[in-house]
Design a protein that fits this description.
By secondary structure, the protein is an alpha+beta fold. It has helices spanning 25-33, 35-38, 133-141, 144-152, 155-160, 191-199, 201-207, 296-303, 307-327; strands at 3-9, 14-21, 49-54, 61-67, 73-84, 88-96, 108-117, 122-129, 172-175, 180-187, 214-220, 228-235, 238-253, 257-264, 272-281, 284-292. The strands form two sheets. The protein has an eight-stranded antiparallel beta sheet with strand order 1-2-8-7-6-5-4-3. Strands 9-10-16-15-14-13-12-11 form an eight-stranded antiparallel beta sheet. The chain is globular and about 70 Å long. Residues 23-159, 190-320 form the Activator of Hsp90 ATPase homologue 1/2-like C-terminal domain.
């Protein structure tokens, strides 16, 4: 059990949990900032969590659910206040409604997570700040301290499973729900360069090509919120085989988050909403793309096209032809 101490201070209105791990500091930090990893331990074993958003940047948000043994679902969110990579981050942890909006009828807890290296590995100190004694007692009655203790007891297994999250693994696809899919890839390169590679037309043309043998004759990027973009691809030597996508930039917070709409040019029906989040992790930059489809049928049809394989080919080209050059 990694928990070293649990201290409840009714005068300072805080609860402090200290946990020690036999893992490097960078590995522990990544476990908290990678949505694929934190959802494996944030909820107690009988209430597993699922994160559909996890920004890990000042001003960002994390949106998660915990599902109980009888199928009951509880919604929560983090409002990110401050971050110093590999040292600390602070969030407001709130209950939420099903649509991800805050539930103001239930208490909000300010939480500060501090990370440090130790002789044996690393340590995280979690301090929860409450607004009143009544609020503290109410959340303790709801099982907050037991839940966190049970949840953190799962961290060791996540830290030991390095291979599942290491740089160099192929693009991963996870079905989150009937309409949501999460695509993840650790890209070998600094977050600023990965962001530029997604937002500068000259760089996009070099790598966002899918399998070999395709070109990108049209590459109109969207820089500011409200602008539209348009990408078209053509198979080399076959001018008749051409397709493209277009959409609008809905949100942008460089170099961490970008939200766009997307639909195939000329295709009927609704398109998708794509939420891309970048985070600095050991080995490079974690790219997380959550795609929301209008229907399960469209989700399955697109996944069946081999989309992930095409994306993996593009990310390998990004590392080889754009990021390697930038580092050199």
């Amino acid at each position: 059990m990694p928990i070293t101490t649990v201290d409840r201070d009714t005068e300072a209105l805080t609860m402090t949990i200290v946990a020690d791990f036999a893992a490097p500091l960078e590995r522990l930090w990544d476990a908290y900032t990678d949505p694929r990893q934190i959802e494996r331990f944030w909820g107690p074993p009988s209430y597993p969590a699922q994160f559909t958003r996890h920004d890990a940047a000042p001003g960002g948000r994390s949106v998660y659910t915990m599902t109980g043994p009888e199928g009951e679902v509880y919604h929560g969110l983090w409002e990110w206040q401050s971050v110093q990579p590999r040292h600390f981050f602070e969030v407001n942890d709130r209950f939420a409604h099903a649509d991800g909006t805050p539930n103001s009828e239930l208490p909000t807890v300010r939480m500060r997570f501090t990370f440090e290296g130790t002789d044996e590995g690393s340590r995280v100190t979690t301090v929860s700040y409450f607004h009143s004694l009544d609020e503290l007692e109410k959340l303790l009655e709801m099982g907050m301290d037991e839940g966190m203790t049970e949840a953190m007891g799962q961290v060791d297994a996540v830290l030991a499973d390095l291979s599942s999250f290491a740089a160099g693994r192929a693009t991963g696809t996870e079905i989150l729900s009937d309409t949501k899919v999460r695509i993840s890839r650790v890209i070998r390169g600094p977050i600023e360069d990965v962001w530029r590679a997604h937002t500068e037309a000259g760089l996009v043309r070099k790598w966002m090509l899918g399998p070999d043998g395709w070109t990108m004759p049209v590459c109109e990027v969207a820089i500011n919120v409200g602008q539209r973009y348009r990408y078209e691809w053509e198979e080399a030597g076959n001018g008749g085989n051409r397709f493209g996508f277009e959409g609008e930039l809905l949100e942008a917070a460089a170099p961490y988050r970008m939200v766009t709409t997307e639909r195939m040019i000329g295709a009927p029906g609704d398109g998708t909403v794509n939420e891309m989040t970048l985070a600095t992790v050991q080995g490079g930059t974690l790219m997380t793309l959550v795609i929301t489809y209008p229907s399960v049928e469209l989700r399955d049809m697109i996944l069946g096209t081999g989309m992930a394989d095409g994306m993996e080919a593009s990310y390998r080209r990004l590392e080889r032809e754009v990021l390697a050059t930038a580092v050199a």
